[in-house]
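Take a look at the protein record below and tell me what you see:
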Amino acid sequence: MSQSPTRILPWLEPGQAFPPIDNAWGPDDPAPGLLAAGAAIDLPTLISAYSQGIFPWFSDGQPPLWWSPDPRLVLQTQHFRLHRSLRKSIAALLRQGRLDIRIDHDFERVIRACAQTPRAGVSGTWLLPAMIEAYLQLHRAGLAHSVETWIDGELAGGLYAVNLGRMVFGESMFCRQSNASKIALAALVAFCRAHALPLIDCQQETAHLSSLGAHCMSRQTFAAQVRLAVPQRSPVWQFQPLYWRHLLVEHGPPE
């Protein structure tokens, strides 16, 4: 019986261009979606990667690994499912004056909390010090943002995402109180809807995100969406309480 030829993973020197995303490993390879290794985890490289629908994901002891999976999990903001229990929880916290959504209030605290949150398929933290510093650089450049759930004056959960043009790339989230990360995601959706941002990249499929309305999109279609969205003007990242109104009213008044 013949065997498939061994795939060689491209090694990138710092500053070297990424290979075409269609060259990423396929379903019969050891790591489907893996595109390349090496390069630098720095601001120009990350901007180049995200602009092409590529993201870094690697663990301690590994070189930088770059991914472009097919299919890609995405959340179309108009298809977000605000489950009844979460809607009631948000409405109650707002009515009681206990919930405050803050954007970029403490990005570094959020990303460091995300680093302590396990990620499926990764043992130990995947947000290594070099990765954290690179995303802090993105944040200082106005290209990475935190959406934070504050309950009773305490940071209860949140997420961070990369924003290039009108494209939002969700990265990671953390939770210290029940539903706090889901509330942050709902707030991100409300923000995106208010600014007509149609798509949030979720990278790889999970049952949790799928239950909230995320679905798979082909890499080709996703890349086309990215190419259209990235050159456009980015929104101003500030959260207004009125953003909740459309999301909560759309799903009906809480009982």
Observations:
- The first strand starts at residue 11 and ends at 12.
